[in-house]
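#lab-general

N.A. 3:47 PM
ok so I finally got the sequence cleaned up, no stray characters, all 184 residues accounted for. can someone with queue access submit it? mine expired

B.Y. 3:52 PM
send it over

N.A. 3:53 PM
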Amino acid sequence: MEVKSEVQSDGQSGNRKNEIYNLLSENLDQLIKAYRSLLEIVRKEKDILVAAKIDELNENNKAKDAILVRVRSLENSRMKCARDLALATNTDVDQPRLLELASKLDEAKGDRLRNLHSVLDLLIKRVSEVNKQNEELVNSALKNITGAMSAIRDTLQAKPTYAKQGAMLPQKSDAAGNLVRKEV
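B.Y. 4:20 PM
back already:
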């Protein structure tokens, strides 16, 4: 009788482990889809930034925010599934790693987790690279706009003028903004 109960508990724990693995695998598939969408959005953002289409940029930012909310939700689910699978496989529950979990599973399931991990890793790197390029574009545009505004402000600043005797005339505060003075 003791042997049967051990077999039943092993079978139940195996079923639970398979169930958790399936949930984790499905979650990772959804994460990959979300990161692919995010990559598409940040690539589109780059084109929009180059073309300086503000309205399209606003719409793209809304789509990016929605995807990021989805990614955060999926990441929370992934972490829970990974902790549950770590518990079922006697692995580090505090910091479960997909590659470590993969080593504790049978070959096919382990290979699948390793593949999902590498695809996710690659997607995250690409999203980060394109996002960094976008950040550089935005910073460059801001620098150009700031420089142009400074040049305009300098042009509009009151310039000292000379009186007939060669001395500097005191400037009036309302003189700023006059591009041409009509004093003779």
